Amino acid sequence: MTAQLLANNPLLHFSGLPKFEEVKAEHVSPAIDHLLSQARATIEALALSTDAVTWDNFVAKLEDMEEKLARAWSQVGHMNGVVNSPELREAYNDNLSKLTDFYADLGQDERLYTKFRALRADKAFNSLTTSQKKIVENELRDFRLGGAELPAVQKNRFKEIQEALAKLSSKFEENVLDNTNDYALYVDDFSTLTGIPVDVLQTASAAAKEDGKMGYKFTLHFPCYLPVLQYAQNRPLRETLYRAYATRASEFGKPEWDNTPLISQILKLKQEAANLLGFANYAELSIATKMAESVKQVSDFLHDLAKKAKPYAIKDFQELNDYAGQLGISDMQAWDVAYVSEKLREEKYAFSDLEVKQYFPERKVLAGLFKVVETIFGVQVVKSQASLWHETASFYDINDPSGKLIGQFYLDLYARNNKRGGAWMDEAITRRKVANELTTPVAFLTCNFSAPVGDQPALFTHDEVLTMFHEFGHGLHHMLTKVDDYSVSGIKGVEWDAVELPSQFMENFCWEWDVLRQMTAHVETGAQLPRTLFDKMVAAKNFQAGMQTMRQIEFSLFDIRLHSDFDPQTNKTALDLIEQVRDEVAVVRPPKWNRFPNNFTHIFSGGYSAGYYSYKWAEVLSADAYSMFEENGVLSAETGQRYWQEILAQGGSRPALESFKAFRGREPNIDALLRHHGMN
Question: Which of the residues are catalytic?
Answer without folding.
Answer: 471
